[in-house]
Amino acid sequence: MPMSLRRVPALPALALAGVLALTACGPAASGSAKGSTTTKAASKPAADVLYNKARESALAATSVHLKGDMTSDGEHLLLDIAGTKAGDVTGSVGAGTEGTFELRRVGGTVYLRSTKEYWTKNAGAEAAQMIGDKYFKLPADAAKDMNDLTVTSLLKSMFEDKDMPAFAKLTTKVEAGSVNGQDAWVLSDRVGGDEAKLYISTDDAHHLLRVAMPTGKDKGTMDFTEWDAVKPITEPSASQIAKIPGM
Fold first, then answer.
1. Helix, strand, or coil here: 88?
2. Please, which domain of life does this record's source organism belong to (predicted)?
3. Which of 21, 65, 142, 204 has the fewest CB within 10 Å, making it most exposed?
4. What's the domain count of the chain?
């Protein structure tokens, strides 16, 4: 196995560290907070009730799909992953100059796939030739570095962040809005702050739909869909996995 391939697992880990940091402090994005025709102001719940219900439903969920477009410390990050509470994940991660890669994690085994250009840049021409357009199976010890990239870890990281409970305080404003056509309650700070917003569905499930932060060094948007509805994630077929000598 080329020595250059031994450092490949660290590359996605760098990108994921940025994603986790951004998620923890409240991923950003702008979103409309204009009133919906079906959301009645008269039935507006209190901010603490909405926040706590969204937190409870998120942490109890069996699966979810996360999609974010963010900037953290000047680095542009793109995240599009679906995952289960058990830790299985599928999707893609893009991190500025690090490039974009596809990810599949099933039962603790992690597979990465990207372009020849990505592998050439990050692991060398020899590695790029061996991997081609197939998946690269990470060694078990390296796969452990990816344990934080599960929907459970991301949700816990976000809701356990010290700034998130601020959405449940009396200074939080609740307005009617929508996300991708779905009615939502929009939680934001009444007295300035960093303009962060939390979008929570108006139905009984009170699912988190979006976390947004339009200003600051960490900004962008993170949308949440397919709560408890992500299809089972399977391993790539043997023909899709690159055969690497010594691995």
1. coil
2. Bacteria
3. 204
4. 1
